[in-house]
Structures are given as structure tokens and as C-alpha cells.
Specification:
3 strands; 3 helices; alpha+beta
């Protein structure tokens, strides 16, 4: 990406970690580099796939934002490169829990 954009969020990549707490089975947390906590997801006594999917979507936010910025720049400049499309596809796969 050639344009400079000021980042006002915690830089990625973010990751989903599973941890347990006495009151819940299967809490999820999203962390940034350096083990910086982004958010905690409490799925209750039976942590379900929806909680995990929500955590994955939150964790993929920096990747999705970067990919969208790249795609917008490509469209604006009337150019298309495989690298940006590949990054966008990977960001989607990450959000869906496929990588």
C-alpha cells in the first residue's frame, strides 16, 4: 500500500486464544502482539461455535482492514495485483477459521 494511513487501533496480527476460568468452560480471548489483551469472550458453561466464530472475526479485523485498504487503492488507481487479492482471500479465510 503506497498511501500512509494513521493507525488508531492496536496493530495486528491478532490471535484467538482459548483459556479457562473457574466460572466458565471455554472462554476465548483475542490478543495482539506482546500478549496485549484486545477482548475477552465469555461463552458461558458450554462455549459454542458462535463464540469462537465471533472471536475469530474480531481477531481478523486488522488483516481485513489492511486488505480492504489495499483493494480500495487498487480500484482507485485502476490496477489489480495478485498479491493484494491473495492477502484479502487469506484475511477472509482467517476470519472464517480456515487458517
Amino acid at each position: 500500500m503506497t498511501t500512509q494511513t494513521k493507525t488508531t487501533h492496536t496493530p495486528g496480527p491478532w490471535k484467538v486464544l482459548h483459556h479457562t476460568a473457574p466460572q466458565h468452560d471455554g472462554d476465548r480471548a483475542v490478543y495482539a502482539p506482546g500478549n496485549k489483551l484486545i477482548c475477552e469472550m465469555n461463552g458461558g458453561p458450554n462455549d459454542d461455535s458462535e463464540t469462537l466464530a465471533n472471536a475469530r472475526l474480531i481477531a481478523s479485523a486488522p488483516d481485513l482492514l489492511d486488505s480492504l485498504r489495499d483493494i480500495l487503492e487498487m480500484v482507485t488507481d485502476n490496477r489489480l495485483h495478485g498479491e493484494e487479492v491473495y492477502r484479502a482471500a487469506n484475511a477472509i479465510r482467517k476470519a472464517e477459521g480456515r487458517i
